[in-house]
Design a protein that fits this description.
Blueprint (H helix, E strand, L loop, with lengths): L10 H5 L19 H11 L9 H13 L3 E3 L12 H6 L4 E7 L2 H4 L10 E9 L3 E8 L10 E8 L2 E2 L3 E2 L3 H9 L8 E2 L13 E5 L2 H4 L11 E7 L8 E9 L3 E9 L10 E2 L3 H5 L2 E2 L4 E2 L5 E9 L4 E7 L1 E2 L10 E10 L11 E2 L4 E7 L4 E7 L10 E12 L3
Parallel strand pairs: 1-2, 8-9, 14-18
Antiparallel strand pairs: 2-3, 3-4, 4-5, 5-6, 5-7, 9-10, 10-11, 11-12, 12-13, 15-23, 16-17, 16-23, 17-22, 19-20, 19-23, 21-22
Helix pairs in contact: 2-3
Protein backbone atom coordinates (compact mmCIF):
# COMPACT_ATOMS: atom_id res chain seq x y z
CA UNK A 1 0.00 0.00 0.00
CA UNK A 2 1.37 3.42 -0.94
CA UNK A 3 0.06 6.90 -0.06
CA UNK A 4 0.86 10.11 -1.89
CA UNK A 5 0.13 13.79 -1.47
CA UNK A 6 -2.63 13.69 -4.06
CA UNK A 7 -4.45 10.78 -2.39
CA UNK A 8 -8.15 11.31 -2.84
CA UNK A 9 -10.30 9.08 -0.66
CA UNK A 10 -13.90 8.89 0.49
CA UNK A 11 -15.52 8.21 3.81
CA UNK A 12 -16.85 4.97 2.39
CA UNK A 13 -13.32 3.89 1.43
CA UNK A 14 -12.04 4.73 4.87
CA UNK A 15 -14.85 2.80 6.50
CA UNK A 16 -13.94 -0.21 4.38
CA UNK A 17 -10.19 0.19 5.03
CA UNK A 18 -9.80 0.58 1.26
CA UNK A 19 -7.24 3.33 0.73
CA UNK A 20 -5.56 3.53 -2.65
CA UNK A 21 -2.91 6.04 -3.64
CA UNK A 22 -4.20 8.43 -6.27
CA UNK A 23 -7.78 7.10 -6.28
CA UNK A 24 -9.94 9.61 -8.10
CA UNK A 25 -13.42 9.82 -6.64
CA UNK A 26 -14.07 13.46 -7.60
CA UNK A 27 -17.37 12.52 -9.21
CA UNK A 28 -18.60 11.01 -5.99
CA UNK A 29 -20.96 12.99 -3.81
CA UNK A 30 -19.26 11.54 -0.79
CA UNK A 31 -17.00 13.67 1.36
CA UNK A 32 -13.26 13.85 0.58
CA UNK A 33 -10.57 13.88 3.20
CA UNK A 34 -7.24 15.66 3.50
CA UNK A 35 -4.04 14.06 4.82
CA UNK A 36 -4.81 15.69 8.15
CA UNK A 37 -8.08 13.75 8.20
CA UNK A 38 -6.13 10.59 7.37
CA UNK A 39 -4.00 11.22 10.45
CA UNK A 40 -7.05 11.11 12.65
CA UNK A 41 -8.21 7.94 10.91
CA UNK A 42 -4.83 6.29 11.48
CA UNK A 43 -4.98 7.17 15.17
CA UNK A 44 -8.32 5.37 15.36
CA UNK A 45 -7.27 2.36 13.29
CA UNK A 46 -3.85 1.82 14.89
CA UNK A 47 -4.35 2.11 18.59
CA UNK A 48 -1.25 3.45 20.29
CA UNK A 49 0.33 4.80 17.08
CA UNK A 50 1.74 8.25 17.85
CA UNK A 51 1.18 10.55 14.89
CA UNK A 52 0.70 14.29 14.95
CA UNK A 53 -2.26 15.68 13.12
CA UNK A 54 -0.33 17.51 10.40
CA UNK A 55 -0.31 16.22 6.85
CA UNK A 56 3.48 16.51 6.61
CA UNK A 57 3.98 14.31 9.66
CA UNK A 58 1.64 11.70 8.26
CA UNK A 59 3.38 11.84 4.88
CA UNK A 60 6.76 11.28 6.57
CA UNK A 61 5.37 8.32 8.46
CA UNK A 62 3.92 6.84 5.29
CA UNK A 63 7.17 7.38 3.38
CA UNK A 64 8.95 5.45 6.13
CA UNK A 65 6.39 2.67 5.81
CA UNK A 66 6.81 2.57 2.04
CA UNK A 67 10.62 2.43 2.29
CA UNK A 68 10.41 -0.82 4.22
CA UNK A 69 8.24 -2.53 1.64
CA UNK A 70 9.81 -4.84 -0.96
CA UNK A 71 9.79 -3.74 -4.57
CA UNK A 72 8.97 -5.80 -7.62
CA UNK A 73 10.17 -3.97 -10.73
CA UNK A 74 9.72 -5.34 -14.25
CA UNK A 75 9.29 -2.42 -16.65
CA UNK A 76 9.70 -3.10 -20.35
CA UNK A 77 13.19 -2.46 -21.76
CA UNK A 78 14.55 -1.83 -18.28
CA UNK A 79 18.21 -1.91 -19.29
CA UNK A 80 21.31 -1.24 -17.23
CA UNK A 81 22.44 2.32 -18.05
CA UNK A 82 25.37 2.69 -20.42
CA UNK A 83 28.70 3.00 -18.62
CA UNK A 84 27.34 1.32 -15.48
CA UNK A 85 28.31 -2.17 -14.34
CA UNK A 86 25.69 -4.56 -13.06
CA UNK A 87 27.27 -4.41 -9.59
CA UNK A 88 27.08 -0.61 -9.52
CA UNK A 89 23.47 -0.77 -10.68
CA UNK A 90 22.48 -3.37 -8.07
CA UNK A 91 24.10 -1.30 -5.31
CA UNK A 92 21.64 1.54 -6.03
CA UNK A 93 18.56 -0.62 -5.49
CA UNK A 94 16.36 -0.75 -2.43
CA UNK A 95 15.25 -4.00 -0.86
CA UNK A 96 13.13 -5.93 -3.32
CA UNK A 97 13.10 -8.00 -6.52
CA UNK A 98 14.05 -6.55 -9.91
CA UNK A 99 14.29 -7.75 -13.50
CA UNK A 100 16.63 -5.89 -15.83
CA UNK A 101 18.49 -6.73 -19.01
CA UNK A 102 21.57 -6.11 -21.09
CA UNK A 103 20.85 -6.00 -24.78
CA UNK A 104 24.21 -5.52 -26.48
CA UNK A 105 26.71 -8.34 -26.76
CA UNK A 106 29.49 -5.82 -27.40
CA UNK A 107 29.06 -4.10 -24.03
CA UNK A 108 28.18 -7.09 -21.82
CA UNK A 109 31.71 -7.68 -20.55
CA UNK A 110 32.23 -3.98 -19.84
CA UNK A 111 29.06 -4.08 -17.76
CA UNK A 112 30.50 -6.87 -15.64
CA UNK A 113 28.67 -9.82 -17.19
CA UNK A 114 30.42 -13.23 -17.26
CA UNK A 115 30.38 -13.65 -21.05
CA UNK A 116 29.71 -11.50 -24.13
CA UNK A 117 26.02 -12.18 -24.55
CA UNK A 118 22.66 -10.49 -23.99
CA UNK A 119 21.30 -11.23 -20.51
CA UNK A 120 18.14 -11.07 -18.49
CA UNK A 121 19.11 -10.42 -14.87
CA UNK A 122 16.97 -11.27 -11.85
CA UNK A 123 18.15 -9.22 -8.87
CA UNK A 124 17.07 -9.84 -5.29
CA UNK A 125 18.14 -7.19 -2.79
CA UNK A 126 17.86 -8.50 0.77
CA UNK A 127 19.72 -5.58 2.31
CA UNK A 128 20.81 -2.55 0.29
CA UNK A 129 24.52 -2.69 -0.65
CA UNK A 130 25.06 -5.56 1.82
CA UNK A 131 23.29 -8.75 0.74
CA UNK A 132 22.33 -9.07 -2.92
CA UNK A 133 21.85 -12.01 -5.28
CA UNK A 134 21.81 -11.84 -9.08
CA UNK A 135 20.78 -14.64 -11.45
CA UNK A 136 21.74 -13.86 -15.04
CA UNK A 137 20.23 -15.79 -17.93
CA UNK A 138 22.17 -15.74 -21.17
CA UNK A 139 19.69 -16.20 -23.97
CA UNK A 140 19.89 -16.98 -27.64
CA UNK A 141 16.62 -16.25 -29.44
CA UNK A 142 17.42 -18.81 -32.14
CA UNK A 143 18.12 -21.62 -29.65
CA UNK A 144 15.84 -23.72 -27.48
CA UNK A 145 15.65 -23.01 -23.78
CA UNK A 146 18.00 -25.96 -23.13
CA UNK A 147 20.75 -23.88 -24.73
CA UNK A 148 20.37 -21.00 -22.27
CA UNK A 149 22.96 -20.59 -19.54
CA UNK A 150 22.47 -19.37 -15.97
CA UNK A 151 25.05 -17.58 -13.84
CA UNK A 152 24.79 -16.63 -10.17
CA UNK A 153 26.56 -13.77 -8.42
CA UNK A 154 26.21 -12.83 -4.76
CA UNK A 155 27.22 -10.05 -2.42
CA UNK A 156 27.80 -10.92 1.24
CA UNK A 157 28.67 -8.43 3.94
CA UNK A 158 29.26 -5.72 1.37
CA UNK A 159 31.68 -7.80 -0.76
CA UNK A 160 30.86 -8.99 -4.29
CA UNK A 161 31.89 -12.53 -5.27
CA UNK A 162 32.61 -13.96 -8.72
CA UNK A 163 30.00 -15.25 -11.14
CA UNK A 164 29.31 -18.99 -10.81
CA UNK A 165 28.11 -20.81 -13.91
CA UNK A 166 25.29 -23.34 -13.58
CA UNK A 167 25.42 -26.40 -15.87
CA UNK A 168 23.20 -26.37 -18.95
CA UNK A 169 20.85 -29.20 -19.87
CA UNK A 170 23.23 -30.32 -22.63
CA UNK A 171 26.16 -30.33 -20.19
CA UNK A 172 24.19 -32.45 -17.72
CA UNK A 173 23.21 -34.84 -20.53
CA UNK A 174 26.88 -35.08 -21.54
CA UNK A 175 27.88 -35.81 -17.95
CA UNK A 176 25.26 -38.52 -17.69
CA UNK A 177 26.39 -40.06 -20.96
CA UNK A 178 29.94 -40.35 -19.60
CA UNK A 179 28.86 -42.03 -16.36
CA UNK A 180 28.02 -45.68 -16.01
CA UNK A 181 25.28 -47.63 -14.34
CA UNK A 182 26.34 -49.21 -11.06
CA UNK A 183 23.11 -51.13 -10.48
CA UNK A 184 23.27 -54.30 -12.58
CA UNK A 185 25.66 -52.78 -15.10
CA UNK A 186 26.15 -53.68 -18.76
CA UNK A 187 25.79 -57.29 -19.84
CA UNK A 188 28.87 -58.67 -21.61
CA UNK A 189 27.66 -60.16 -24.91
CA UNK A 190 28.46 -63.78 -25.65
CA UNK A 191 31.67 -64.21 -27.64
CA UNK A 192 33.27 -61.00 -26.33
CA UNK A 193 37.06 -60.77 -26.05
CA UNK A 194 37.60 -59.41 -22.52
CA UNK A 195 40.76 -57.68 -23.80
CA UNK A 196 38.54 -55.22 -25.68
CA UNK A 197 36.64 -54.01 -22.61
CA UNK A 198 38.60 -50.83 -21.86
CA UNK A 199 35.73 -48.34 -21.43
CA UNK A 200 35.24 -47.55 -17.73
CA UNK A 201 32.07 -49.10 -16.43
CA UNK A 202 30.36 -51.87 -14.51
CA UNK A 203 29.83 -55.11 -16.45
CA UNK A 204 28.43 -58.56 -15.71
CA UNK A 205 28.27 -62.08 -17.13
CA UNK A 206 25.07 -63.88 -16.08
CA UNK A 207 26.12 -67.55 -16.23
CA UNK A 208 28.85 -70.12 -16.67
CA UNK A 209 27.43 -70.94 -20.10
CA UNK A 210 27.90 -67.33 -21.19
CA UNK A 211 31.37 -67.16 -19.59
CA UNK A 212 32.46 -70.19 -21.62
CA UNK A 213 31.96 -68.18 -24.82
CA UNK A 214 34.27 -65.35 -23.71
CA UNK A 215 37.91 -64.97 -24.73
CA UNK A 216 40.72 -64.13 -22.26
CA UNK A 217 38.37 -64.62 -19.32
CA UNK A 218 39.98 -66.14 -16.19
CA UNK A 219 36.78 -67.77 -14.88
CA UNK A 220 34.08 -70.09 -16.20
CA UNK A 221 31.21 -68.94 -14.03
CA UNK A 222 29.01 -65.87 -13.65
CA UNK A 223 30.82 -62.74 -12.51
CA UNK A 224 30.82 -58.97 -12.30
CA UNK A 225 33.65 -56.83 -13.68
CA UNK A 226 34.74 -53.25 -13.01
CA UNK A 227 36.79 -51.41 -15.62
CA UNK A 228 38.48 -48.17 -14.57
CA UNK A 229 41.34 -45.88 -15.49
CA UNK A 230 44.26 -46.79 -13.24
CA UNK A 231 46.11 -43.45 -13.41
CA UNK A 232 43.31 -40.91 -13.21
CA UNK A 233 42.15 -39.84 -16.68
CA UNK A 234 44.66 -41.48 -19.04
CA UNK A 235 42.71 -43.89 -21.25
CA UNK A 236 45.86 -45.93 -22.00
CA UNK A 237 46.10 -47.19 -18.42
CA UNK A 238 43.15 -49.42 -17.58
CA UNK A 239 42.50 -51.90 -14.77
CA UNK A 240 40.02 -54.77 -14.94
CA UNK A 241 38.75 -56.43 -11.77
CA UNK A 242 36.60 -59.56 -11.98
CA UNK A 243 34.74 -60.66 -8.85
CA UNK A 244 33.26 -64.12 -8.48
CA UNK A 245 31.11 -65.31 -5.61
CA UNK A 246 31.66 -68.98 -4.89
CA UNK A 247 29.63 -70.89 -2.31
CA UNK A 248 32.64 -73.13 -1.71
CA UNK A 249 35.44 -70.61 -1.55
CA UNK A 250 33.80 -67.24 -0.83
CA UNK A 251 34.63 -64.16 -2.88
CA UNK A 252 37.41 -64.45 -5.45
CA UNK A 253 38.95 -61.45 -7.20
CA UNK A 254 41.04 -61.42 -10.37
CA UNK A 255 42.86 -58.27 -11.44
CA UNK A 256 45.07 -57.14 -14.34
CA UNK A 257 46.19 -53.91 -16.02
CA UNK A 258 47.18 -52.53 -19.40
CA UNK A 259 49.36 -49.56 -20.25
CA UNK A 260 48.40 -49.31 -23.94
CA UNK A 261 44.60 -49.35 -23.97
CA UNK A 262 44.28 -53.09 -24.21
CA UNK A 263 46.89 -53.97 -26.83
CA UNK A 264 48.70 -56.04 -24.21
CA UNK A 265 47.72 -57.02 -20.67
CA UNK A 266 49.48 -58.26 -17.58
CA UNK A 267 48.68 -61.74 -16.36
CA UNK A 268 45.61 -62.08 -14.16
CA UNK A 269 46.53 -61.80 -10.47
CA UNK A 270 44.16 -63.55 -8.07
CA UNK A 271 43.57 -63.07 -4.39
CA UNK A 272 43.55 -66.40 -2.56
CA UNK A 273 40.24 -67.61 -1.17
CA UNK A 274 39.68 -68.28 2.50
CA UNK A 275 39.75 -72.01 1.76
CA UNK A 276 43.09 -71.65 0.00
CA UNK A 277 44.49 -69.62 2.88
CA UNK A 278 43.26 -72.17 5.40
CA UNK A 279 45.22 -74.79 3.46
CA UNK A 280 48.41 -72.70 3.67
CA UNK A 281 48.90 -72.53 7.42
CA UNK A 282 52.59 -72.65 8.21
CA UNK A 283 53.93 -73.91 11.52
CA UNK A 284 57.29 -73.82 13.27
CA UNK A 285 60.07 -75.64 11.47
CA UNK A 286 58.37 -75.61 8.07
CA UNK A 287 59.69 -73.98 4.92
CA UNK A 288 57.93 -72.01 2.24
CA UNK A 289 59.33 -73.32 -1.06
CA UNK A 290 60.17 -71.00 -3.95
CA UNK A 291 58.09 -73.25 -6.22
CA UNK A 292 54.96 -71.77 -4.66
CA UNK A 293 54.42 -68.13 -5.77
CA UNK A 294 52.56 -66.20 -3.12
CA UNK A 295 49.65 -64.65 -5.01
CA UNK A 296 47.57 -61.72 -3.87
CA UNK A 297 50.44 -59.68 -2.47
CA UNK A 298 49.81 -55.99 -2.08
CA UNK A 299 51.35 -52.98 -0.41
CA UNK A 300 52.56 -49.45 -0.95
CA UNK A 301 55.66 -47.36 -1.44
CA UNK A 302 56.49 -44.76 1.21
CA UNK A 303 59.53 -43.04 2.70
CA UNK A 304 59.74 -40.59 -0.17
CA UNK A 305 59.67 -43.48 -2.66
CA UNK A 306 62.55 -45.44 -1.07
CA UNK A 307 60.62 -47.84 1.19
CA UNK A 308 58.43 -50.67 -0.06
CA UNK A 309 55.96 -52.36 2.29
CA UNK A 310 54.58 -55.71 1.12
CA UNK A 311 51.70 -57.63 2.68
CA UNK A 312 51.49 -61.29 1.66
CA UNK A 313 48.35 -63.28 2.61
CA UNK A 314 49.65 -66.32 4.54
CA UNK A 315 48.26 -68.24 7.48
CA UNK A 316 50.61 -68.84 10.41
CA UNK A 317 50.05 -70.90 13.49
CA UNK A 318 50.19 -69.08 16.80
CA UNK A 319 53.75 -68.53 17.99
CA UNK A 320 55.30 -68.51 14.51
CA UNK A 321 57.77 -65.68 13.93
CA UNK A 322 59.80 -64.69 10.88
CA UNK A 323 62.76 -62.31 10.52
CA UNK A 324 65.05 -61.20 7.71
CA UNK A 325 67.33 -64.20 8.30
CA UNK A 326 64.38 -66.50 7.67
CA UNK A 327 63.94 -65.18 4.12
CA UNK A 328 66.62 -66.78 1.97
CA UNK A 329 65.34 -65.53 -1.40
CA UNK A 330 62.84 -62.92 -2.53
CA UNK A 331 61.65 -61.97 -6.00
CA UNK A 332 58.88 -59.50 -6.76
CA UNK A 333 56.27 -59.43 -9.51
CA UNK A 334 54.52 -56.32 -8.29
CA UNK A 335 53.05 -53.53 -10.36
CA UNK A 336 51.94 -50.02 -9.52
CA UNK A 337 48.41 -48.96 -10.45
CA UNK A 338 49.96 -47.42 -13.57
CA UNK A 339 51.19 -50.86 -14.68
CA UNK A 340 54.93 -50.31 -14.09
CA UNK A 341 56.92 -53.10 -12.44
CA UNK A 342 58.25 -52.32 -8.96
CA UNK A 343 62.03 -52.33 -9.27
CA UNK A 344 61.78 -51.90 -13.03
CA UNK A 345 61.37 -55.55 -14.05
CA UNK A 346 59.23 -58.65 -13.59
CA UNK A 347 60.64 -61.17 -11.07
CA UNK A 348 62.85 -58.48 -9.57
CA UNK A 349 65.42 -59.89 -7.12
CA UNK A 350 64.76 -57.90 -3.93
CA UNK A 351 66.61 -60.04 -1.37
CA UNK A 352 69.47 -57.53 -1.04
CA UNK A 353 66.99 -54.76 -0.20
CA UNK A 354 65.05 -56.64 2.50
CA UNK A 355 65.25 -54.63 5.72
CA UNK A 356 62.51 -56.18 7.86
CA UNK A 357 60.25 -59.24 7.98
CA UNK A 358 57.64 -60.39 10.47
CA UNK A 359 54.30 -62.16 10.72
CA UNK A 360 50.84 -61.06 11.71
CA UNK A 361 49.12 -64.40 12.44
CA UNK A 362 45.77 -62.91 13.46
CA UNK A 363 45.59 -60.97 10.21
CA UNK A 364 47.01 -63.86 8.17
CA UNK A 365 49.84 -61.76 6.77
CA UNK A 366 53.55 -61.92 6.15
CA UNK A 367 54.91 -58.36 6.28
CA UNK A 368 58.07 -57.51 4.33
CA UNK A 369 59.91 -54.19 4.23
CA UNK A 370 62.43 -53.46 1.48
CA UNK A 371 64.50 -50.27 1.31
CA UNK A 372 66.15 -49.02 -1.89
CA UNK A 373 68.23 -45.84 -1.60
CA UNK A 374 67.68 -44.80 -5.22
CA UNK A 375 63.93 -45.42 -4.98
CA UNK A 376 61.49 -47.99 -6.30
CA UNK A 377 60.53 -46.04 -9.41
CA UNK A 378 57.31 -44.58 -8.04
CA UNK A 379 56.24 -41.63 -5.97
CA UNK A 380 55.47 -41.69 -2.28
CA UNK A 381 52.25 -43.49 -1.19
CA UNK A 382 51.89 -45.41 -4.47
CA UNK A 383 49.92 -48.67 -4.02
CA UNK A 384 51.26 -51.89 -5.57
CA UNK A 385 49.75 -55.30 -6.26
CA UNK A 386 50.90 -58.67 -7.66
CA UNK A 387 52.77 -61.70 -6.35
CA UNK A 388 55.87 -62.53 -4.35
CA UNK A 389 58.08 -65.60 -4.68
CA UNK A 390 60.14 -66.26 -1.58
CA UNK A 391 62.00 -69.07 0.16
CA UNK A 392 61.28 -68.80 3.87
CA UNK A 393 62.56 -71.01 6.66
CA UNK A 394 60.32 -70.68 9.71
CA UNK A 395 62.36 -71.01 12.93
CA UNK A 396 61.44 -73.87 15.21
Amino acid sequence: MRFTDNASITSANMANDDILAGTDVSASADKKFSLANIADWLLNKFNGLSLAGSSQTVKSALDSLNSNLSHFVMPSNNAIPSGTTVEQYADTLEKGFYIVCTTATSTALAQGMPIASPFTIYITVYSKQEHIQMIAESFNPSASISGDTLYIKRKYGGTWHDWVKMPTRSEIDSLNSNSYLLAYGTRIPNGTDINTLVTPGHYYCPSGTAAATLTNCPVNTSFIMNVEFSTGNDANYVRQTITVTSSAGGIIEHMRTTGNKGSTWTAWASMPTRAEMDGMTYIKGESVPTSTPLEGAYGFITGGGNTLWIFVPMQFANGVSVNTNSVTSLTLSLRTIGGAYVGGADNFDAKAYLSNAYTRPKQGLLVLQATKSDGWGATNNTPVVGRVTAAISIPS
